[in-house]
Amino acid sequence: MKGVDAIADALNRYTDRLYTVPGFPITELGKLTKAEMVINEKTALEYALGDSLSGRRAAVIIKNVGVNACADPLLQATAQGLIGGVILVTGDDPEAKGSQTAQDSRYYGELAELPVIEPDETTCYAGVEAALEASEEFSRVAMLRLTPQILDGVVSGNPVPRNDRKGRLSDRAWTMNGRVTAAEELYRTMFAWSDRSALNQWKGEPAGVGAAAGSSRIVTVHPLPEQAAGIHEIHEYGRTFVRDHRGIQPPLPQERPQAMEDRGYYRTFCTACPFKPLMNILQERNMAMICDAGCSVLGMTPPYELGVASYGMGASIAVAARSTKVALIGDYALLHSGLNALIDVYEKRLPLLCIVMNNICTAMTGKQPAYDPVPYIRWADPVICRADDELTLKKELVVTDRPRTLVIEGTCPEGSSHETVEY
Questions:
Q1: Which helix (H) or strand (E) covers residue 267, if one does?
Q2: Per-residue pLDDT tens for 374-398?
Q3: Is 36 contained in some domain?
């Protein structure tokens, strides 16, 4: 059996949803799995995170340079957490035969503190399932790194049982500092996971990674198992990632994650915020939502606490389309990196209520001017209303069986700032 066939079969067995953006060397893999094509890689990962919040396992199949487009939600997910397993299946092209670069995606594993698995010819099935289990165990995206050598090579091995677990979202009582601290502690325990993984085999020198030959086999390439430190000769495709990371130690134990109660306060919308009528109606209707970056993220904090998760700038639209069906986003975030997702959602006619708070400024960072998004989304036939028009708000704040965009216009009061509320 070819590697691409085994990986495709494994992905179909162990995941519930698959997304892809074609490109060498993973175009065939996306086709074999019948993965849903998405407008770009960032949106695909956001869809997968939405699936995760709904308890589904999801995979995103992309080429190496596509990982760059995923960077923001990829790193944010480490701190924010997830529920169902999500794997980023990255097709690396070490010889740049069909790519703009010879980028080695494993470095994103180090940057985002992800579990990274690079299967060899005997672990294609077990590697996919192990990546999903690791995603759930450590509540973050896992990476499955593939090269043309493993995709085109002959592999062996049989399917393994599917073993769905359950990750967790970061505690909403934690501050951002607390969320990062908790995620770092999970990363520390990931080293022991790699040390004890049965995917790795230790039979002396040299060691092979992926399709590269070797007596010993290293499959959990980030974090590296402690045993790798004793191997001097390592064969791998791409940069010398494994060779250079031998002996890396886990981070030191962290303090207890900081909660807002420990800090003594939480932040919420400005006292005279024009969007409070919107938030009050959402709260009255208990409408769970995905929040974006900017002021919309305050929907996660008291007194509203409606936000289920927030995965970064422009991410709320695609995540919500696969989970809560309600996205709260600001004008700047929409134009920054949310438009692609909105286009994809409308093309696929996915049920979604996209709520845009339009104050024509970046209120979270100092009220720098922003563009009015309305001229750029007229194709979406948005409903536009004033922030104080409660009659229209009550009528339009509903989820239907199609995508809808509601633009709410308000002006931030001069000299206003987010309210700090003591515990």
A1: strand 265-270
A2: 999 999 999 999 999 999 999 999 9
A3: yes
Query: What's the CA gap between 103 and 99, in Å, rounded?
Result: 9
The label of the residue with tokens 């922030």 reads 387
Residue 255 has pLDDT above 90, yes or no: no
Query: Among 328, 330, 403, which residue's Cα sits nearest to residue 372?
Result: 330
If phi > 0 it is left, if psi is from -120 to 50 it is alpha, else beta; for residue 371 that is beta
User: Residue 46 sits in which domain range?
Assistant: 3-244
> 266 pairs with which residues across the strands?
421
The answer to whether 418 touches 268, Cβ cutoff 8 Å, is yes
Say yes or no to pLDDT of 49 above 90.
yes
| CA-to-CA dists, residue 338 to 46, 82, 191, 343, 356, angstroms | 11, 21, 35, 9, 11
**What is the C-alpha end-to-end distance of the chain, expressed in Å?**
61
Q: Where residue 120 sits, what CATH number does that domain have? A: 3.40.50.970
Cis peptide before 225 (omega within 30 of 0): no
Residue of 362, 407, 364, 393 lying closest to 276 (CA atoms)? 393
Q: Are residues 361 and 228 in the same domain?
A: no
Q: How far apart are CA 37 and CA 48, in angstroms?
A: 12
Structural domain ending residue among the three candidates 183, 214, 244: 244
Tally of structural domains, the chain? 2
308 and 269, same domain (yes or no): yes
pTM over 0.70: yes
Are the CB atoms for 80 and 311 separated by under 8 Å?
yes
**DSSP H or E run through 308:** strand 307-309
Buried b (16+ CB within 10 A) or exposed e, 272-294: ebbbbbbbeebeeeebbbbbbbb
Q: Tokens standing for 114?
A: 């992800």
* pLDDT above 90 for 423: no
